[in-house]
Every structure is written in C-alpha cells, then in structure tokens.
Queue: 3 jobs
Job 1
Amino acid sequence: MLTVRAAAKINLSLEILGKRPDGYHELVSVMREVTLVDELRVSHSDDIALRTNTTDIPDGVNLVLRAARAMQERFKPDQGAHLSLEKRIPLAAGLGGGSSDAAATLVALRQLWGVDATCHDYLDLASSLGSDVSFFLYGGTSLVEGRGERVVPLPDGPEAWYVLVNPGVRVSTAHVFNSLASEDRWEGSATCEVAARSARNEDPGIGTNSLQTTLFSLYPDAERCFETTAELAPRRTIVSGSGPTVVAQFDGANQAGAAAAELARYGYWTATVRNRPRKGDRPCASS
Ligand code: C5P
C-alpha cells in the first residue's frame, strides 16, 4: 500500500491571451499548490478499481480512473491496481482537485509498478487528461503557459497564508471559457509581475484573473462571495481559475483563521491554507 497526497492549486494570477484554433484558450498563469489535499492510496491488484468517499464523480469522467487506465495501457498492460481516494478538495471549484488527483495517480502508479519513464512521457499523458494536470507533475509554485501544458517551475518563496472561500455552487470551466467575449484579451503583464516576484523568491502577491467578470455574470453567488471576502482582504483577493472559489491572502495564520471564521458565518465553505513546497516525488520536480 502506498499513499500519495494530491494538493489543491490556486491561481495567483491568470490571464487569457486569446482563443486558439483548437478551441482552447492561450493563457498565462502563476499556479501554486496549497496545503489542502486529497489522499490517494494504491495497492497491487489484477484489475483497475477505484473507491472514493464521494458518489459525485461518475466513472466515465473520473480522472483517477482515466489516468490509471492510460498509465496501464502505455507502460504496464499486465499490471492492475486498487485505488482509494479520500476527497477533501471541493469539486468543480477552480482548485484543480480532479487534475491533481490524476497527476497523483500517475505519481503513485509510477512508484507501485516501478515505471521507468521520463518527465516528457508523463507530460504527454498529462495533457491528454486535462489542461491543468501538467502543472501537478511539477507542483510547488510554477508559471504555466500555452493551454496549460507548458510549465516553468518557480522557487517555493516565503511562507504565505490564504483563506479559500467557496459559495457552494459548482462551476463548469468550459461554460466560463466559452462565455468569454471574443474581444476579451489580456496581454499578461500582471501575471508576469507576479512571476517575476516569485522568481526572486519573494512573496508573489496577487495579480489578476481575466475569467472573473465572465464568471460573475454567469454565477451571481460567486460575485457576492468575492465582494464579501474582498472586504476583509482588499486588493489581496482573487478568484481561483474558473471559480467559484475565492482566495484571500493574509499576513499570518491568526489573521487568516479569524477571517475564515468570519466568512463561515455567511454559510461559505472555508479552508485556511499555506503554500506547499514542491515535493521531490513529482516526475518533473527536478526539471
Ligand atoms: O483541459 P480541460 O478538459 O480541463 O478543460 C476544460 C474546458 O476548459 C475545455 O473544454 C475548454 O472549454 C476550457 N479551456 C480552455 N482553454 C484552456 C483550458 C481549458 O478553453 N487553456
């Protein structure tokens, strides 16, 4: 039995540079793993089977099963595994939970089956599973470009504290991306500033998220959650990914904890987290 943790990610900044001929969007983002984690356990077996503590993810779209089958097909057709996933990261929340679980599956089966493959091989598999999966093969804090498949690792930086706030609505990433107006384009400079601070090993701070306005027009609850949170952390609040989870940065654990308690009074799901250093077990951690 082997246990791997799959961390949630937050986007410290995310800008959409344009729509690509393949239907995806060209983006630039600084992504950061935080200390909210799902736990994945794997053990040897003849077939591939998954147990989870949630009934909400249909088998056909479950990224853990898709990742396990892709890994088996590509590297070890004669091996199977029993996988057990304990989910704590909210679903369809902009926190990359499903993508992180998929990457954790690759990491776990690589160890369990003794797969000898390169970072490039894993990146290939990752991009066939979803745009955010590649980031989790590096983890830590990274600059992410292209459709999400080009990842440049950044230093872990000083300890930083965040409160994650979720209003309880589930958001379709595709719906938000597809509702962007065709003239919506950003040049990426806010994100580059965040990346530059991060590259100097400073606190990256918070940039901008170009999906926010579209998200708010589609999901008014997300806007209310953002406004309520931003009152406690002005200029340090951002939506993560396509939302609806809101991220607010605070100076320390006590300030973050107090804000989380205040926000929970509105009925929001909250978590107090810090940045998670890059882990050495990721196939691309040393790239
Ligand atoms: O890659 P993934 O399946 O996670 O993406 C979900 C949806 O988000 C895509 O179908 C697409 O509509 C949108 N997307 C996009 N551009 C990206 C990433 C995602 O348009 N770079």
Note: The pocket of cytidine-5'-monophosphate is lined by residues 24-25, 27, 130-132, 147-148, 173-174, 177-178 (CB under 6 Å).
Job 2
Amino acid sequence: MSQVRVAIVMGSDSDLKVMEKGAKLLKELGVGCEVRVISAHRTPAEAKAFAEGLEERGVQVVIAGAGGAAHLAGVMAAHTVRPVIGVPVDSMMPGGLDALLSTVQMPPGIPVATVGVGGAKNAALLAVQMLALSDPELSARLKAHRAAQADEVRAKDAKVRAQFEG
Ligand code: RP5
C-alpha cells in the first residue's frame, strides 16, 4: 500500500456517497489516502486523537466532510497544523446551507479551506495541488488531468454544436 498522504474523514457513513468521489479522484491521481468515519460530536476523543496523530504518521492534508452542524473540519483544524479542507455535506437543511456556514465560518487563527457544498472532487484536487508544490511528478499528472478535462469539454461542445447546426 502506498504512503497515506491525504486523510479523508467524514462525520457519518451517510456522507460517503459524497466523500467517495474525492477518494476515487485521489486514487486516479496516484495519491495514497485513507478514509475514516470520525464524528466531532459522537466520537470527540477519536477526532482529537486522529488529528493530533496526523503529523507523526506523515499525513499531509486532511479533507473533512460533514453535514448539519458540521464541526468536523474545524475540530480537525483545531488539533493539527496540517492544512484542512472542509466539505459541507447536504444532509439536513436542503441545499446544505447549515453545513456550509458551520464549515466556512471559522474564527481567525484556525483556518479551514472550505469548498462548495458536496465539493469532494474539488477538495481532492486542492489537496493534490498542495502536494504537487513539492512533487513534480504529481504536478505533471495534475496537468494531464486538466488537459483531459478540457478535451471532455471540447467533445461536448462539438456534440452540442452538431445538434444545432443548420
Ligand atoms: C453529521 O450528521 C454527519 O456528518 C451527517 O452528515 C449527519 C447525519 O448523520 P447520520 O445521522 O446519518 O449518522 O454529523
């Protein structure tokens, strides 16, 4: 198994349908990750111990997703100086506004880089961009991923254009 460089944590297994998209993308880009269910409220001792142990285990970035009163990313950030990316999950209030505000509105001094509601893919890409700062091979894979994405859009453009051509 490759070295775990990114930890994906979520408040409940009900968040997995969102968070697994990030895990899948990390795998595609060849970044070792671990996926855990740890709750800021239901298992607070585990949350603290997990965050405190990240540095020693060599984990470089944390992606934390939770819904409702979403404090998991903030709790992770409170107990580590590793960068924490928060993913608000739409699980209680429609649209996930509760989770978005709970995740993004951190007090000055303890930052959480918050992506959009359900934005596990962007969280993974942001984590990869951080790791790529000191990893040229990963940076090359990231550029190839962007290029492939652009090709997909061009293919869609061609398809839509063809549909409406006179
Ligand atoms: C949050 O409460 C979790 O992150 C999840 O989004 C939400 C509901 O949890 P379950 O009742 O599905 O376990 O802590």
Note: The mean pLDDT is 97.
Job 3
Amino acid sequence: MIVLGIESSCDETSAAVVRDGDTLLSVVTNSSMDLHAQYGGVVPEIAARSHIECINGVITQAIEESGCTWDDVNAIAVTYGAGLGGSLLIGVLTARTLAIVHNKPLYAINHVEGHVYANFITKVGSNPKLADYQPRTEQPAFPMLALIVSGGHSQLAVFRDHFDYTLLGQTQDDAIGEAFDKVAKIIGVPYPGGPNVEKKAAEGNPHAFNFPKANMHTPSPALVELRANMATAHGPLDASEKRAGEEQAETSGSDVSPAEGLAPPKTMKKEKLIPSYDFSFSGVKTAVLRAAQASIGEDHSFPSKDLPDRLSETQKADLAASFQRTAVETVADKTLEAYEEFAPASVVIAGGVAASPALREMLAERLPCPIAYTDRRLCTDNAAMIATLGCFHMKLGRPTADPYSLEIAPNLSM
Ligand code: KG4
Ligand code: ZN
C-alpha cells in the first residue's frame, strides 16, 4: 500500500510517500519560514502564496524520489484542518484535483492526529536523502498516551486503538510552542522561537527566575466520562482505580476509613482538587514579560518591543532558560500524572516542541518508562506523518473524502 501525503496547514509545503504505514519512501518539505522571519511570526497571506508557488514541484519531487510512479500510488491523504485557512486551501484543492485526475481515493487527515503518527514510521526506503533519518525502531503499543506539543496545540490524549481515543486535556489559551515563539520576541531572538530560545537557554541559568506553573482543575466532560467508565472497567486502566481510591482516602483527611461507615470528620484536611489535563501558557508568558521589564528597572508599561535592546545577553539567557524549564516541567508533570492514572503501554510525544532536547531530558528524568522518539525532522510539520496516518485510514477501511467537495476545517479539533 502506497500513500501520497500532502501537508500545507501552516508555513511548510510538504509531500511524502509512505508504504504500509511504516516505511518512509520520500519526504520533500519547502518552508516559507525565512519569508516570515522579519515579521516575527507567520504571515498567512505570505504562507499561502508560497504554497501556491511550490506545491506542484514539491509533490513531483516527492514522487520521483520515492522511486514510485503515479500508477503505484494507492491513495492520497491531505491535511484538511486544523490550520490557516489560506494555507489549507492550497493543499486540499491540489489533493482534490490530483485525486480526480489520477482517479485515486482521497483521505482527509486531521493535522494534530497526523503528528502522533510520525511515531509509527519505523523504516526508510533506499532514497539516499533519507539515509541519515533516525525514526523509531518499533511502532508504539496501545493503549498509548500521546503528548502533542506544537505551535498551535498542547494536548494529552489516550489512544485505546487507532481512531479510538479520548482527549484528556488541552491548552485553554496559548499553545506551548506559541509561548516559546512569544518569549523569543520578548528577549529578541529570531523566529522561529523554539529552537532559538533553546539555543539562548543553553547559556543561561534555568533557576534564575521562578515562573508560575498553571494548575488547571476542571476536567473536560470527555475526561469525566472516561474516569466514570474506568471505575467500572478492568484492564490497563486498573492502576487508575487504585489511584482514585488512594486519593479518596487522602481527601477524607481521616485516619478512619470511610468504608467503616463513619460520618466524615468535621475538620477536613485541605480538599484535594480533581486533576485535569488542561494546560495554560499565557500566564508564564506574561510573567516572563514582567520579569524582563523588572530586570531593566522598568514597570509593566514599558513597551515589550524595546526590551531586546535594553536586556543584557546574560539576562536574555536567564529568562530563556527559566522559561524553558517552567514550560517543559509543566508538560512533563501532566504527562507523568496521566501515565500514573491511565497506565498506558506506551507514551509518544508529537509536534514541533517534541524536538526540544530540554523536554526530552525532563521526560526521561520524570517518567518511569523510556520514551522512543522519532527523528526531529518528523516532529515539526511534514507530510510523512500525514501519509502514514493515511495508510491507517486505508488499511482500516475508513471512509474516503469526496474529491469534488472536501472542505477545509481551520478550527478542527481532536
Ligand atoms: O508542529 P509544528 O511544526 O507546527 C505546528 O503544528 O504548530 O511546531 C512548531 C512549533 C513552533 O512554535 C516552534 O517554536 C516549536 O514548535 N519548536 C520548539 C523547538 N523546535 C520547534 N520549541 C521548543 N524547542 C524546540 N527545540
Ligand atoms: Zn503541526
């Protein structure tokens, strides 16, 4: 089974060919990142124009480099959401046209789910351009806990199987990558923020500042339902039942077990809040801004655009390192909580921020199980992950999209 994947949701135009949902035959990605650098972020119109200019060439090259012909291609998979409307349109219209012209089935792919499937690539073909790729050696096992951390998303989901998952939590404001990008602007390191904050952080003290970590306590309805189901079910979720029992005992604050039928004591210990897996990164971003202003002896009215000229290189490095520590600790803590509650057979990390060595180190430190990572180039936006998920759509007989009517879904969620 050979699937051509097409990805154009943000500033990367990418095409890839994947065989059988595990073997990458080619991936060609053109990024318009350099065109956006002078504006400090992606300019949607510039991204869309760049997709138009290069998408045909990128697809032709991906097919050529894969060693396949159009006859070999069994299906086309395209990102239809979430993303920038203008950018998504170019990929979707191109895929629709190619599906009609070459008479191939078309699969509409959710970009965020796609990120997770970068972890299912375990081999590369004989294409010399892929010779130095280091994907995972084995596909992850189910139930699988997925942490998705990118410029547009911060999500934790538990997958019982392909296409059968529950979203445990997500960001309520900024995504973690977005926070990296905004902090980059505050300290004046160039776009893209993540890798440049990472470089700056390497020179700084991660404990120079103590930034707040948001603790969210309203579980989503999906999480409430999952917990209710788990309370009556068995299997891989047994560990959580035990934990829920322990928590109940802790909240009661009594030495006497509630099972003994006594009324709860009048003086309760501080009530333990029900954990949720939602994130919030806007507070830490604002804390970085306030700390930067205070570092140069100014108050909150000092314009952020003038900060980079006034901050010393040491101050910038300390702000970057302290922010990076707080951000990665936040997601690592939540991942550990979810690991303990759901006892998954595997944990995968997906999305652009999965490329962060600081996050990888923090997870290795905190999680009791090893995590296998895919190649950094497969963490950021690419069509290899889209083609891989497309293979699973096809393998499992999922419905195809109508090439005459498939619409984009810029606000698609998991
Ligand atoms: O997955 P991706 O390519 O695009 C989206 O779907 O959003 O992720 C891009 C995000 C950007 O916010 C970028 O700053 C962040 O991933 N990123 C990093 C690193 N490399 C990329 N963040 C932290 N550390 C990195 N090394
Ligand atoms: Zn992405």
Note: The pocket of zinc ion (ligand 2) is lined by residues 111, 115, 150, 351, 381 (CB under 6 Å).
